[in-house]
């Protein structure tokens, strides 16, 4: 795209993150997310949620709606990075939306991370 003079915006990069996740190419998904910041674009809630989903589904093949169907399990998903990004969203003043919370709640539950569910619940109720 850039070679032809087109410069992707946040929406385009987020779509690419989703697309590469769908194809199972998480390195490219993460690259496009990181590329936004390198180019001075501010990732929005959708971009962060896509990236968090990529980290939680590390090593899996994800459908387009991977938020709700991600089969991440302990040792497969990258929880540390997903939670770091969630914290980064807050630090930048980006309010997580229902997709972000649904993704995290579902995956915490699947991984039996009940303490994390309670902490996330407190966060949701305080926002």
From TrEMBL:
Pfam families: PPR_1, PPR_2. Keywords: Repeat. Signal peptide: none annotated. GO terms for cellular component: mitochondrion. PPR repeats lie at residues 9-43, 60-96. One of its GO terms (biological process) is RNA processing. The keyword Secreted does not apply. InterPro entries: Mito_RNA_Proc_CCM1 (IPR051114), PPR_rpt (IPR002885), TPR-like_helical_dom_sf (IPR011990). One of its GO terms (molecular function) is mRNA binding. NCBIfam families: PPR (TIGR00756). This is Pentacotripeptide-repeat region of PRORP domain-containing protein. It comes from Asparagus officinalis.
């Amino acid at each position: 795209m850039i070679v032809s003079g087109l410069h992707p915006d946040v929406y385009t990069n987020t779509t690419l993150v989703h697309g590469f996740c769908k194809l199972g190419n998480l390195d490219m998904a993460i690259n496009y997310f990181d590329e936004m910041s390198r180019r001075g674009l501010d990732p929005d809630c959708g971009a962060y949620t896509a990236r968090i989903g990529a980290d939680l589904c590390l090593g899996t093949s994800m459908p387009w709606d991977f938020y709700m169907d991600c089969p991440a399990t302990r040792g497969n998903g990258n929880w540390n990075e997903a939670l770091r990004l969630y914290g980064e969203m807050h630090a930048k003043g980006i309010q997580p939306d229902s997709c972000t919370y649904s993704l995290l709640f579902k995956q915490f539950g699947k991984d039996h991370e009940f303490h994390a569910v309670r902490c996330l619940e407190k966060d949701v109720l305080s926002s």
